[in-house]
Specification:
Chain lengths: ~280, ~300
């Protein structure tokens, strides 16, 4: 940042204004539907507010015509958590593998990158067709799980690459020199250092899966996940109950992120305290 | 990536003689395969084989009841000779191009502001997080959140009317191509900001300093120093935005109100009509188009040093 300190001229303020507008653009609509979800019973999809109430939130839980909101939420949650665990595990393991050269490492890397580039609807269609031909019933915990992993694993792998790029192998060498077995080195040296980043990978995997729609379309089978449920609502629900659902799911996402970030913070503080005590 | 693998390989090789025993060395050799196994297996079963299935089914025959294993070219013939297909492809490319240009301008400007104009690293991270938070909510929720803004009686129309700028509500705001592109920009601008920001943070600040000492103006520094060095990030962001838009169907369906089409939407419609071979042929063509676009971008910019 050297040199930039002296010139906080016109360009800085113009860029700052642009950034402000961008943030407004990102948040404006979401804030609007949050406000509108507290619309009174007579209120519609747009302003003005017709009173303030929790009517649409109650409506969300009462009205069974809307669909299986609770069940789809539970399924999405379970699916997201499974995807999270598998993403962390698989991409960390693969990250270790990629630190050495092995036969087919190039091909596997390109397959992972391809997984990011292939349009979601193709993954959905392909898995749906495969299960169809094999005569296996698609379910959210088999085909949809696999479909979600094709989206979360490449992201996880790329993040793990970035982590290992910054990782100093001197720690491992020191552990080895002190007589640690490879497993002990991983367990007591590598994993604790990587833990905060791995939580990031998990958080990423969870939210990607929790919100994934296109890859679930043909792979979820007869039971909907939450995004499918929401999509169904957008086509036939024209009341603020839609916004109430939006507000709730957004709130839930933020709670999950908050919990994860708090976890990282606690870990960091604990480590600081420990190293502080050691010194 | 390969560059980073070399030193750790060397260090593990130097440690090898110490751990004697044949079993140990066999274990050492198979370890990477065991470690990469779950990832490889998942991608094989849920990506590679499904795509091969799509390719196979694209040659199958079908009627209104079921699909039949066969080798016919009619699916491709019907697809490629239909003017609807070409119009739809053109429309999708138009969406992709517009979204790409707008997200690139926004992404570059925002990343440039964060990387070069925000002084403290703490503020940099805070503002960066502020940009990423909306990304954590559902795409569909973010789409429907535009309804109260853009509708006939939406905030924008009533604002413009009360300001006296217009006396009729603007009809093109919602359920139009405008709404589709707006939603795309809203959804995917972040995919541009993050990689470009990442690239810019790696630029050696001494280069900027040297350019300025050499008498370059701020615009010249951006154009001749920062832009070339941020290219890998731009390429990664572009690949994300373009592939996401090319395959999208839900944004187009929701935001155009069914008045506009895209290839993804065409495939989704064929799926819902159970015309799987037709959808598969369409998917194969879409995949080929997307791959050509990506390869073209990779030929212009080498992104491997970014990994």
């Amino acid at each position: 940042m050297t040199g930039t300190g002296t010139r906080r001229g016109l360009s800085f303020y113009l860029l700052a204004a642009f950034f402000g507008l961008f943030v407004l653009f990102l948040y404006g609509p979401i804030v609007t539907i949050t406000i509108l979800s507290f619309q009174g019973p007579e209120g519609g999809l747009t302003f003005p507010m017709n009173g303030v109430s929790l009517h649409w939130f109650r409506n969300l839980f009462e009205q069974q015509a809307v669909g299986d909101f609770g069940g789809s939420f539970r399924r999405s949650l379970a699916l997201g958590l499974t995807v999270m665990v598998l993403t962390v595990l698989f991409s960390l393991l693969a990250g270790f593998a990629f630190r050495r050269r092995f036969l087919g490492s190039g091909a596997l890397f390109y397959l992972a990158v391809a997984s990011l580039i292939v349009p979601s609807i193709l993954v959905s269609l392909g898995i749906g067709l495969l299960f169809n031909i094999l005569g296996i019933e698609p379910t959210w915990y088999s085909s949809a799980l696999g479909a979600h992993l094709t989206w979360t694993l490449p992201f996880g792998l790329l993040i793990v690459f970035a982590i290992f790029n910054r990782f100093n192998p001197a720690y491992e060498e020191a552990a080895r020199d002190l007589g640690a077995t490879p497993w002990q080195t991983v367990r007591h040296v590598v994993l604790p250092i990587l833990l905060p980043s791995l939580i990031g990978v998990g958080l990423f995997g969870f939210t990607l899966s929790y919100d994934e729609f296109a890859r679930t379309l043909m792979t979820a089978g007869s039971f909907n996940t939450l995004p499918l449920e929401i999509y169904g609502m957008t086509t036939n629900v024209t009341t603020p109950v839609l916004y109430a659902l939006g507000t709730l799911t957004t709130l839930f996402s933020f709670t999950v992120i908050g919990l994860f970030l708090a976890g990282v913070m606690i870990l960091r503080r604990r480590r600081l305290r420990r190293t502080g005590a050691a010194a | 990536m390969t560059a980073s693998a070399v030193p750790s390989e060397a260090s593990s090789a130097s440690a090898a003689p110490r751990s004697g025993g044949v079993r140990r060395s066999v274990l050492r050799r198979v370890t990477p395969y065991l470690q990469a196994g779950p990832l490889a297996l998942t991608l094989l079963v849920f990506l590679l084989i499904p795509i091969l299935t799509i390719v196979a089914v694209s040659f199958w025959d079908y009627d209104s009841i079921r699909i039949y294993p066969d080798f016919v070219l009619t699916n491709y013939e019907e697809l490629l000779t239909s003017p609807v297909t070409w119009k739809t492809y053109l429309n999708t490319v138009k969406f992709a191009a517009l979204t790409w240009v707008i997200t690139l301008l926004i992404g570059f400007t925002v990343a440039y502001f964060l990387a070069f104009h925000v002084q403290s690293t703490t503020w940099q991270m805070v503002l960066f997080l502020v940009c990423t938070i909306p990304f954590w909510t559902s795409n569909i929720i973010r789409m429907i959140s535009w309804i109260p803004f853009l509708g006939r009686n939406g905030l924008l129309n009533s604002g413009l009317i009360s300001a006296g700028l217009i006396d009729q509500p603007l009809e093109f705001l919602l359920f139009s191509d405008f709404a589709v592109v707006l939603a795309f920009v809203h959804l995917y601008a972040l995919f541009m900001v993050v990689p470009i920001f990442n690239s810019m943070m790696r630029i050696d600040r001494a280069l900027v300093e040297a350019a300025r000492d050499g008498g370059a103006s701020a615009a010249q520094v951006v154009w001749n120093v920062i832009l070339p060095l941020a290219k890998p990030g731009i390429a990664i962001g572009s690949i994300f935005v373009i592939t996401l838009v090319m395959g999208d169907f839900i944004t187009v369906r929701l935001m155009s109100g069914g008045q506009s089409a895209s290839i993804g939407l065409m495939i989704a419609n064929e799926i819902s009509l159970l015309q799987y071979p037709a959808a598969a042929a369409n998917a194969v063509v879409l995949l080929a188009v997307v791959l050509i676009m990506v390869v073209a971008m990779l030929r212009i910019v080498d992104i491997r040093k970014e990994l």
